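Q: Given only this backbone (349 positions), what sequence would you predict?
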């Protein structure tokens, strides 16, 4: 079965083709960073308009790269939510229309389920069950995963997601958009001994997260130390390092607790923040120390992409699920509400 995947939930246009026999045949991502950089963040209307401009040419590019024609596609998957409603409408309308024109089934995919299943595109792929940490600009969640659609939320952010806190702290440090990767680069030059930031919600039981206070702590530290700093550039780097260390250690502590609470031995990390080098190093060491295994998608599949949508769509299309001609993208969509697939229909790539 060969599935075309379309991702347009926010500020990246992603398209890919996944084949059940050949694996990922081709994928491409167009980023809107240059469009939104001058505003310091995503402008939803501009994002929607750029998806209109780029999605169809990107589909043509991916199909040409894979050497495919319309008659060789067996299904179409598109991101139906959560995300920016205007951006979701673009991919949903185009994906559903192509499926109708080609006479193949279509499926609306949950954006975070796409991220959660992205590590299954790798070799080796983690077998079910496992615990998943979904960590991105809009979400920070710990999920107990028994199979596709068989999800139990263990904990989530009560305010800012980790990626959102990265971006807002980067903005306070006068770093360019997108701020998260820029903060991580600045942190490489920071002295880890100069500042120690709090590890939020690690001094109490539970698996929820809260990064809003940490973001404020970083801003207050910047305001009180920068005016009298002998080396302002180094001070900014030290604050970036302290902030990154606090986020990373908080995520590590919560993941170890989640494995202990569920009795699982496998942890997967997915979402944009999972590409952070320091997070991967610390998580690998911490999980290995308790006898567990850690899995990630390749960096190119950590951020929003069409490959994860094509793969998640394939899992559901091959199980007989599909969408009617009407479609309903959703800005908010609880992942626990997704229908579960029977264990016999859940397979690796």
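A: Predicted residues:
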């Amino acid at each position: 079965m060969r599935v075309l995947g379309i991702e347009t939930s926010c500020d990246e246009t992603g398209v890919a083709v996944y084949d059940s026999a050949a694996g990922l045949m081709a994928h491409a991502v167009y980023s809107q960073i240059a469009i939104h950089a001058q505003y310091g963040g995503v402008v939803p209307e501009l994002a929607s308009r750029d998806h209109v401009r780029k999605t169809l040419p990107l589909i043509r590019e991916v199909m040409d790269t894979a050497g495919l024609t319309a008659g060789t596609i067996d299904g179409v998957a598109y991101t139906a939510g959560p995300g920016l409603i205007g951006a979701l409408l673009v991919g949903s309308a185009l994906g559903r229309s192509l499926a109708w024109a080609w006479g193949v089934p279509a499926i609306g995919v949950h954006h975070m389920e796409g991220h959660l299943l992205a590590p299954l595109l790798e070799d080796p792929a983690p077998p079910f069950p496992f615990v998943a940490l979904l960590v991105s600009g809009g979400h920070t969640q710990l999920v107990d995963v028994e199979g596709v659609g068989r999800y139990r939320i263990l904990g989530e952010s009560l305010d800012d997601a980790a990626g959102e806190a990265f971006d807002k702290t980067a903005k306070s440090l006068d770093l360019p958009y997108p701020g998260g990767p820029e903060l991580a680069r600045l942190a490489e030059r920071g002295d880890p001994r100069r500042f120690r930031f709090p590890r939020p919600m690690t001094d109490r039981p539970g698996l929820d997260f809260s990064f809003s206070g940490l973001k404020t702590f970083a801003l207050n530290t910047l305001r009180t130390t920068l005016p009298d700093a002998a080396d302002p550039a180094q001070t900014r780097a030290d604050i970036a390092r302290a902030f990154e260390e606090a986020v990373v250690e908080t995520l590590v502590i919560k993941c170890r607790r989640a494995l202990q609470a569920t009795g699982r031995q496998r942890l997967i990390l997915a979402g944009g923040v999972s590409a952070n080098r320091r997070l991967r190093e610390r998580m690998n060491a911490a999980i290995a120390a308790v006898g567990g295994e850690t899995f990630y998608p390749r960096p190119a599949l950590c951020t929003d992409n069409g490959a994860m949508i094509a793969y998640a769509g394939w899992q559901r299309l091959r199980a007989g699920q599909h969408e009617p001609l009407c479609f309903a993208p959703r800005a908010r969509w609880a992942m626990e509400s997704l229908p579960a697939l029977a264990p016999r229909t859940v397979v690796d790539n």
